[in-house]
Amino acid sequence: MKGDLLCPHASFPVWLDHWQALIAGIVGAIAILITVWWTLSTEKRRRADETRNMRAALGAELRQFMTQTLSVLGEALDAVNRMGPGANAVSFSYAQIRNFGRFPDAVVYRGSIGTLGSLGDRAFQVVHFFGQIQVVRDAMIAIREMEGMGQSPRLHQIENTARALLAAAQAGLDALPAFGTANYADYDRRLSELVTDRAEAMKVLFPNTEPSVAPAQK
Predict the structure, then answer these.
(1) Which terminus of the chain is more solvent-facing, meaning fewer CB atoms within 10 Å of its CB: N or C?
(2) Which of 66, 99, 90 is nearest to 198 (CA)?
(3) Distances in Å between the alpha carbon of 102 and those of 49, 55, 218?
(4) How deeply is 17 buried, as exposed, middle or buried, from its count of CB atoms within 10 A (0-12, 13-18, 19+)?
(5) pLDDT(72) > 70
(6) DSSP label of 217
(7) Largest Cα–Cα distance in the chain?
């Protein structure tokens, strides 16, 4: 019988009836492989889209925080620059100092913690930047506590705040290459120039300030 089925003269219905289980198994296996391949490909594309969108959103948030950091640092340095030589008490209120630490919530950063690994070695710089922002906020909490004790603002408080802001800006500059695009090239270059300018001003007002980092490479 088997020999007859393998014979080229065997009728197709007889041949199909005999081998239908095997044929169905092969077709089913091929269908499963195609389904798995399609599912994995779709998941890969989805993850790639999520990573690309995360980079765009987190890059925009980082630039927003850097812009505010440099702006606030400029205000702090201008306030110190207006003080006379040898002055220790600053000429503005605790409320003005607290404004130095008024940053919005890092919504995108907090929501992307689980995907920061896709940034590779740059993930550390991103975490470090937002960590430095938290240092500034913590400094503002300490200043608020001193305000409650009835003490006047002191120069060293401004200096410590300025140092924390500069450290945050320099950390942000290190992280920018992870989000570098041609659309932001001019903006990032301007941020780099501002970090250098603020660092130079810090060295004049506070001679013990650490030297500025090199500008970020594009």
Answers:
(1) N
(2) 66
(3) 32, 24, 30
(4) exposed
(5) yes
(6) P
(7) 111
Q: What domain count does the chain have? A: 1
The Cα–Cα gap between 188 and 184 comes to 6
Q: Which domain holds residue 195?
A: 57-205
- Position 207: which residue type? P
* DSSP result, 77-114: HHHHHTSPTT--B-SS-HHHHHGGG-----HHHHHTGG
40: CB partners within 8 A, 6+ apart: none
CA distance 182 to 169: 21
Strand partners, 154: 89
- Tokens at 168, concatenated: 């945050």
Tokens of 4: 């007859």
CA dihedral of residues 101, 110, 178, 50 (deg, nearest 10): -150
Residues 199 and 103: beta-carbon distance below 8 Å: no
Q: Could you tell me the two tokens for 204? A: 């004049």
Average pLDDT, the chain: 75
